[in-house]
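User: Reviewer 2 asked us to show a designed sequence for the structure in our supplementary figure. I'm pasting the structure tokens here. Could you produce the per-position amino acids so we can include them in the response letter?
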């Protein structure tokens, strides 16, 4: 794999992890107030 391919994969994983963390934080904070479908719609 080229350097650019490796960099792309690393960035994708990094941003996916950040997204997972963000969603899990939202679930903890807002889970009782909003159904999960509302969170994803935002």
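Assistant: Here is a per-position design you can include in the supplement:
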């Amino acid at each position: 794999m080229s350097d650019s391919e490796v960099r792309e994969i690393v960035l994708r994983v990094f941003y996916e992890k950040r997204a997972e963390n963000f969603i899990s934080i939202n679930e903890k904070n807002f889970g009782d107030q909003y159904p999960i479908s509302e969170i994803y719609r935002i």
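For the response letter, you might also mention the following. Residues 3-41 form one domain. The chain has one domain: 3-41.
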